[in-house]
Amino acid sequence: MEPRKASQSLTILTDLVLPSETNPLNNLFGGELLARMDRAASIAARRHCRRITVTASVNHVAFNKSIALGSVVTVEAKISRSFNSSMEIFLDVWVEDRESGNRSKANEAIYTFVAVDDSGRPVQVPAVIPETDLEIERFKGALRRKQLSLVLAGKMKPNDATELKALFME
Ligand SMILES: CC(C)(COP(=O)(O)OP(=O)(O)OC[C@H]1O[C@@H](n2cnc3c(N)ncnc32)[C@H](O)[C@@H]1OP(=O)(O)O)[C@@H](O)C(=O)NCCC(=O)NCCS
Protein backbone atom coordinates (compact mmCIF):
# COMPACT_ATOMS: atom_id res chain seq x y z
CA MET A 1 0.00 0.00 0.00
CA GLU A 2 1.54 3.32 -1.13
CA PRO A 3 2.13 5.85 1.69
CA ARG A 4 0.37 9.18 1.15
CA LYS A 5 1.38 12.71 2.09
CA ALA A 6 -0.46 14.27 5.04
CA SER A 7 -1.23 17.28 2.85
CA GLN A 8 -3.23 15.10 0.43
CA SER A 9 -5.93 14.68 3.09
CA LEU A 10 -6.33 18.41 3.77
CA THR A 11 -10.01 19.31 4.03
CA ILE A 12 -11.31 22.85 4.51
CA LEU A 13 -14.93 23.57 5.42
CA THR A 14 -16.05 27.20 5.62
CA ASP A 15 -19.52 28.19 6.82
CA LEU A 16 -21.45 30.88 8.70
CA VAL A 17 -22.86 30.69 12.22
CA LEU A 18 -26.66 30.93 11.89
CA PRO A 19 -29.15 31.83 14.68
CA SER A 20 -30.39 28.22 15.00
CA GLU A 21 -26.82 27.12 15.81
CA THR A 22 -26.25 29.40 18.79
CA ASN A 23 -26.71 29.32 22.58
CA PRO A 24 -28.48 32.02 24.69
CA LEU A 25 -25.29 34.13 24.57
CA ASN A 26 -25.52 34.14 20.76
CA ASN A 27 -22.39 32.04 20.43
CA LEU A 28 -21.98 28.84 18.43
CA PHE A 29 -23.15 25.67 20.26
CA GLY A 30 -20.27 23.34 21.13
CA GLY A 31 -22.20 20.42 19.64
CA GLU A 32 -22.60 22.20 16.33
CA LEU A 33 -18.85 22.77 16.16
CA LEU A 34 -18.23 19.11 17.06
CA ALA A 35 -20.47 18.07 14.16
CA ARG A 36 -18.67 20.37 11.72
CA MET A 37 -15.31 19.02 12.87
CA ASP A 38 -16.57 15.43 12.59
CA ARG A 39 -17.65 16.05 8.97
CA ALA A 40 -14.33 17.65 8.00
CA ALA A 41 -12.33 14.91 9.77
CA SER A 42 -14.39 12.21 8.09
CA ILE A 43 -13.60 13.65 4.65
CA ALA A 44 -9.88 13.99 5.49
CA ALA A 45 -9.78 10.35 6.66
CA ARG A 46 -11.58 9.21 3.52
CA ARG A 47 -9.22 11.22 1.29
CA HIS A 48 -6.28 9.45 2.92
CA CYS A 49 -7.51 5.88 2.63
CA ARG A 50 -10.31 5.94 0.02
CA ARG A 51 -12.40 3.61 2.22
CA ILE A 52 -15.50 3.91 4.41
CA THR A 53 -14.41 5.63 7.64
CA VAL A 54 -16.15 5.82 11.02
CA THR A 55 -15.49 8.02 14.06
CA ALA A 56 -13.85 5.82 16.69
CA SER A 57 -13.02 8.49 19.27
CA VAL A 58 -12.93 12.21 19.96
CA ASN A 59 -9.61 12.36 21.76
CA HIS A 60 -9.27 16.02 22.54
CA VAL A 61 -11.33 19.17 22.13
CA ALA A 62 -10.43 22.63 23.40
CA PHE A 63 -13.16 25.26 23.17
CA ASN A 64 -10.72 28.10 23.78
CA LYS A 65 -12.77 30.95 22.36
CA SER A 66 -16.47 31.46 21.80
CA ILE A 67 -17.61 32.03 18.22
CA ALA A 68 -20.23 34.72 17.70
CA LEU A 69 -23.42 34.59 15.63
CA GLY A 70 -22.70 35.58 12.04
CA SER A 71 -19.03 34.57 12.19
CA VAL A 72 -17.35 32.94 9.23
CA VAL A 73 -15.86 29.72 10.60
CA THR A 74 -13.28 27.60 8.82
CA VAL A 75 -12.54 24.06 9.95
CA GLU A 76 -9.30 22.57 8.63
CA ALA A 77 -8.79 18.84 8.96
CA LYS A 78 -5.66 16.87 8.13
CA ILE A 79 -4.38 13.39 8.98
CA SER A 80 -1.39 13.37 11.30
CA ARG A 81 -0.66 9.63 11.40
CA SER A 82 -2.15 6.28 10.56
CA PHE A 83 -1.60 2.94 12.27
CA ASN A 84 -3.18 -0.30 11.01
CA SER A 85 -6.80 0.67 10.45
CA SER A 86 -6.98 3.86 12.54
CA MET A 87 -6.12 7.41 11.57
CA GLU A 88 -5.54 10.41 13.82
CA ILE A 89 -7.04 13.60 12.38
CA PHE A 90 -6.14 17.08 13.62
CA LEU A 91 -8.69 19.87 13.42
CA ASP A 92 -7.87 23.56 13.52
CA VAL A 93 -10.77 26.00 13.72
CA TRP A 94 -10.37 29.56 12.49
CA VAL A 95 -12.66 32.59 12.70
CA GLU A 96 -12.46 35.38 10.14
CA ASP A 97 -12.71 39.00 11.18
CA ARG A 98 -15.46 40.66 9.15
CA GLU A 99 -13.66 43.95 8.54
CA SER A 100 -9.99 42.97 8.19
CA GLY A 101 -10.49 39.45 6.87
CA ASN A 102 -7.74 38.31 9.27
CA ARG A 103 -8.12 34.80 10.68
CA SER A 104 -7.64 33.89 14.33
CA LYS A 105 -7.46 30.40 15.81
CA ALA A 106 -10.57 29.68 17.87
CA ASN A 107 -10.43 25.99 18.69
CA GLU A 108 -8.71 22.71 17.98
CA ALA A 109 -9.46 19.04 18.29
CA ILE A 110 -8.15 15.56 17.59
CA TYR A 111 -10.37 12.77 16.31
CA THR A 112 -9.65 9.11 15.57
CA PHE A 113 -11.24 7.47 12.55
CA VAL A 114 -11.14 3.81 11.55
CA ALA A 115 -11.38 2.52 7.96
CA VAL A 116 -13.85 -0.34 7.61
CA ASP A 117 -15.13 -2.66 4.90
CA ASP A 118 -18.79 -2.98 3.85
CA SER A 119 -19.47 -5.11 6.93
CA GLY A 120 -17.91 -2.60 9.33
CA ARG A 121 -14.73 -4.63 9.92
CA PRO A 122 -11.50 -2.60 10.27
CA VAL A 123 -9.20 -2.65 7.22
CA GLN A 124 -5.62 -1.51 6.69
CA VAL A 125 -4.87 2.05 5.59
CA PRO A 126 -1.81 3.63 3.92
CA ALA A 127 1.01 5.12 6.01
CA VAL A 128 1.32 8.92 6.29
CA ILE A 129 4.26 10.97 5.04
CA PRO A 130 4.59 14.13 7.16
CA GLU A 131 6.49 16.97 5.48
CA THR A 132 6.19 20.29 7.33
CA ASP A 133 7.56 20.86 10.87
CA LEU A 134 4.01 20.87 12.26
CA GLU A 135 3.09 17.66 10.43
CA ILE A 136 6.24 15.98 11.76
CA GLU A 137 5.55 17.17 15.34
CA ARG A 138 1.97 15.89 15.20
CA PHE A 139 3.10 12.59 13.63
CA LYS A 140 5.61 12.02 16.44
CA GLY A 141 3.07 12.57 19.23
CA ALA A 142 0.34 10.42 17.69
CA LEU A 143 1.31 7.06 19.19
CA ARG A 144 1.19 8.29 22.78
CA ARG A 145 -2.17 10.00 22.12
CA LYS A 146 -3.49 6.72 20.66
CA GLN A 147 -2.31 4.85 23.74
CA LEU A 148 -3.89 7.44 26.06
CA SER A 149 -7.19 7.18 24.19
CA LEU A 150 -7.12 3.36 24.38
CA VAL A 151 -6.27 3.42 28.11
CA LEU A 152 -9.13 5.86 28.83
CA ALA A 153 -11.51 3.70 26.78
CA GLY A 154 -10.47 0.64 28.80
CA LYS A 155 -9.04 -1.02 25.67
CA MET A 156 -5.41 -0.99 26.77
CA LYS A 157 -3.75 -1.68 30.13
CA PRO A 158 -1.77 1.34 31.38
CA ASN A 159 1.25 -0.93 31.78
CA ASP A 160 1.20 -1.71 28.05
CA ALA A 161 1.17 1.97 27.09
CA THR A 162 4.95 2.15 26.79
CA GLU A 163 5.12 5.31 24.68
CA LEU A 164 2.76 7.10 27.05
CA LYS A 165 4.69 5.99 30.13
CA ALA A 166 7.93 7.20 28.59
CA LEU A 167 6.44 10.71 28.48
CA PHE A 168 6.13 10.75 32.28
CA MET A 169 9.64 9.38 32.78
CA GLU A 170 11.29 12.21 30.78
C1 LIG B 1 -14.39 1.97 15.57
C2 LIG B 1 -14.65 0.49 15.43
C3 LIG B 1 -14.68 0.13 13.94
C4 LIG B 1 -13.47 -0.24 16.09
O1 LIG B 1 -13.77 -1.60 15.99
P1 LIG B 1 -13.11 -2.66 16.99
O2 LIG B 1 -13.85 -3.92 16.86
O3 LIG B 1 -12.90 -2.05 18.33
O4 LIG B 1 -11.76 -2.93 16.26
P2 LIG B 1 -10.31 -2.93 16.83
O5 LIG B 1 -10.23 -3.22 18.29
O6 LIG B 1 -9.53 -3.81 15.91
O7 LIG B 1 -9.85 -1.43 16.61
C5 LIG B 1 -9.66 -0.93 15.32
C6 LIG B 1 -8.73 0.24 15.43
O8 LIG B 1 -9.38 1.29 16.14
C7 LIG B 1 -8.55 1.73 17.20
N1 LIG B 1 -9.41 2.19 18.26
C8 LIG B 1 -10.50 1.59 18.76
N2 LIG B 1 -11.01 2.33 19.76
C9 LIG B 1 -10.21 3.41 19.88
C10 LIG B 1 -10.20 4.54 20.74
N3 LIG B 1 -11.13 4.70 21.70
N4 LIG B 1 -9.22 5.46 20.60
C11 LIG B 1 -8.28 5.31 19.66
N5 LIG B 1 -8.24 4.27 18.80
C12 LIG B 1 -9.19 3.33 18.92
C13 LIG B 1 -7.75 0.49 17.57
O9 LIG B 1 -6.57 0.84 18.28
C14 LIG B 1 -7.44 -0.06 16.21
O10 LIG B 1 -6.42 0.72 15.62
P3 LIG B 1 -5.30 0.06 14.63
O11 LIG B 1 -5.99 -0.96 13.78
O12 LIG B 1 -4.81 1.22 13.83
O13 LIG B 1 -4.25 -0.51 15.51
C15 LIG B 1 -15.98 0.03 16.10
O14 LIG B 1 -15.89 0.24 17.49
C16 LIG B 1 -17.17 0.78 15.57
O15 LIG B 1 -17.68 0.48 14.49
N6 LIG B 1 -17.66 1.78 16.33
C17 LIG B 1 -18.78 2.59 15.90
C18 LIG B 1 -18.31 3.69 14.96
C19 LIG B 1 -19.41 4.69 14.72
O16 LIG B 1 -20.51 4.31 14.40
N7 LIG B 1 -19.09 5.97 14.89
C20 LIG B 1 -20.08 7.00 14.83
C21 LIG B 1 -20.71 7.10 16.18
S1 LIG B 1 -22.25 7.89 16.09
Would you write up a description of this structure?
The chain has 170 residues and is an alpha+beta fold. It has a single domain (4-130), classed as Roll (Thiol Ester Dehydrase, Chain A), CATH 3.10.129.10. Helices cover 28% and strands 34% of the residues. It is built from three helices and seven strands; from the N terminus they run E-E-H-E-E-E-E-E-H-H. The protein has helices at 30-49, 133-152, 162-169; strands at residues 4-5, 11-16, 52-62, 72-82, 86-96, 103-116, 128-129. The strands form two sheets. The chain has a five-stranded antiparallel β-sheet with strand order 2-4-5-6-3. A two-stranded parallel sheet has the order 1-7. It is globular. The chain starts with a strand and ends with a helix. The relative contact order is 0.19. The model has no long low-confidence stretch (mean pLDDT 95). Coenzyme A (COA) binds at residues 54-57, 83-86, 112, 114, 116, 120, 122, 146, 149-150, 153, 155.
